[in-house]
Amino acid sequence: MPDDLRNRPVFKLNAIDDQEKFRPLPPPTGEYPYHLDISEVLPDLSADKIVFHMAGDTGSLRSPEFQRMVADEMAHQCEAAVGGAAQFFFHLGDVVYNYGQASQYYSQFFYPFKNYSAPVFAIPGNHDGDIDPLDDPQPETLEAFRTVFCDTEQQDIELPDGIRRKTNIQPHVYWKLKTPLADIIGLYSNVPKFGKITNEQRDWFITQLKEHEAGKALIVCVHHAPYSADTNHGSSIHMQRFLNEAFETAGVLPDIVFSGHVHNYQRFNKTYSSGKIVPFIVAGAGGFSDLHSLAEPGDPLFPDDSPLLDDVVLQNYCTDSHGFLKISVSKEDGRLVLAGQYYTIWDAYTPRQRAGIFDEFRLVIDR
């Protein structure tokens, strides 16, 4: 971690908690309990090692060169690479800005990722679910997102310029991706700035935690970051309470939690009363042009002294470069290992050859 005193997340004072922006969820496109076995999309995935990308906030209305560089570097890693080629991309939300309009998907998603050959899964972000009040007629919330990611069968999307992409078959806007080595639970935290999750989704989530299959990594993804030290959003008290109360009710802790929403990279470790350390990782620098800085220690507008932030320690961060995660889950000497690398791209005006590794972490999972 850079050599300064910032080692805790913060809350942002004087921030508007716009819970009135909550939008009722659309109906599912699949059957309860909203599981998708990855073999339906990638039938030949190895049972010994999986490798995939994660990033959020890839959409961008201005300065699209950043999102294109991130997408190009990710596409490069879908080919043979040290540590294995990436087999899919799990998007952490905000595929498009500023609203989830169908008209924005070509320029902000399909075109930048035109060379990304692997499937893309996603959870929605707040911008994906928001609706432009000037749209006429008004689309339904998440209408475009569901068309692309929640189809009932895979089919080609008609795109210009020879770009090829199929729809995905996620069963709902919150759902579980089942892989040979890991279960990835994707939550939808809705449109408000600090997120909001319904009781129905809460009950579903607790059930998924309780029924987690032993011998697999348990990964939780939610767009709004529970813990953050940035000055634009800060930590979400709603997401903290939702997750920690669900973990306590289920009696189950995940192995790791990923979020976007904040446009930078931060890696926290939270130590629970059981002694288990759960990393909470923010990876929201996937392409939106403006990056978010961290609060200076002692800034009264960004206090870090709440007991809700105890036992959460900032391990590393990057606020001046866009980037993405490459995650692997593998069997090593009879143990399950989850390893991550955070790659940053170069400055748009001083290019280098390839994205470089900024941070690495490794978890040995015992179950």
Describe the structure.
The chain has helices at 65-76, 105-110, 126-129, 143-149, 199-210, 237-250, and strands spanning 35-37, 49-55, 88-91, 120-122, 175-178, 182-186, 217-221, 256-259, 265-271, 277-283, 312-318, 323-332, 335-344, 356-365. By secondary structure, the protein is of the alpha/beta class. Helix 5 (199-210) packs across helix 6 (237-250).
Uncertain spans: none
Strand order of the largest sheet: 1-5-6-7-8-10-9-11
What is the H/E order? Answer: EEHEHEHHEEHEHEEEEEEE
* Largest sheet features: 8 strands, mixed
Q: Helix- and strand-based class?
A: alpha/beta
> Which range does the strand content fall in?
15-25%
Overall average residue pLDDT: 95
Roughly how much helix do the residues carry, as a percent range?
Answer: 10-25%
Report the strand count: 14
Q: Helical segment tally?
A: 6
Shape: globular
> Rounded to an integer, what's the Rg over CA atoms?
19 Å
Tell me the layout of helices and strands.
Blueprint: E1 35-37, E2 49-55, H1 65-76, E3 88-91, H2 105-110, E4 120-122, H3 126-129, H4 143-149, E5 175-178, E6 182-186, H5 199-210, E7 217-221, H6 237-250, E8 256-259, E9 265-271, E10 277-283, E11 312-318, E12 323-332, E13 335-344, E14 356-365
Parallel strand pairs: 1-5, 2-3, 3-4, 6-7, 7-8, 8-10
Antiparallel strand pairs: 2-12, 5-6, 9-10, 9-11, 12-13, 13-14
Helix pairs in contact: 5-6
